Amino acid sequence: MDKQLERLAKAPPAVRFGVLVGLVMVLTAANFFFGIQPLEVEMEEQQAQQRKLDLELAEKSEIAQNLNERRREMDVLEQKLAEALTELPENKDIEELLAQINDIGKKSGLEIARVEPGPETVGGGDFFARIPIKMVVSGNYHEIAMFLQEVSTMRRIVNVNNIKLDGAKVKNEKVMLNSSFLATTFRFVNTAKQPETKK
């Protein structure tokens, strides 16, 4: 090695320059192949990994946003279902309904003579059952009309039909009438549960 360096030192400047240039080129090539190129490959791999992670993040963010929207929609639907079940409950709750009707009758000034709930009927393929309630009340025309108006604005659906007015008589300077009618309320029937009960 020392002899080669001595020969290089005694060599003409052009040879020394050529050797120096060759040495620089060898070092540059070695630096590129063993230092820079592996770093570039690693950088490309990391960039590809970064792009993949960015795509996953975007997809998961979209899923999270959709999940929040679905939760809000579910809350709205549950609220609507609760409101619908108030109007069309799953249980009969006849006692509660009769108590409400009784309160409305008293506030209207009526005397309720008879309340007779009938058997529940479900039509073929219907999602609801009908519960008829025969009623007889007495009061003046205005009180009966007020009572029917209040019943029509109840949260629970109640239809009133077959209204009959008769037996007019004067009592305390008022014309009192007997009124009989059929009040029909409804109950939601879960058709999915019916096959289970048949089993």
Write the layout of secondary structure elements.
Elements: H1 2-10, H2 13-87, H3 94-108, E1 111-117, E2 121-122, E3 128-139, H4 141-152, E4 158-171, E5 174-188, H5 194-198
Antiparallel strand pairs: 1-3, 2-3, 3-5, 4-5
How would you characterize the overall build of this protein?
The N and C termini lie far apart (100 Å). This protein has five helices and five strands. Strands 1, 2, 3, 4 and 5 form a five-stranded antiparallel β-sheet that branches. The protein is rod-shaped. Strand 2 (121-122) and strand 3 (128-139) form a beta hairpin. The longest helix is centred in the first third of the chain and has 75 residues, at 13-87. It has 199 residues and is of the alpha+beta class. It has helices at residues 2-10, 13-87, 94-108, 141-152, 194-198, and strands at residues 111-117, 121-122, 128-139, 158-171, 174-188.
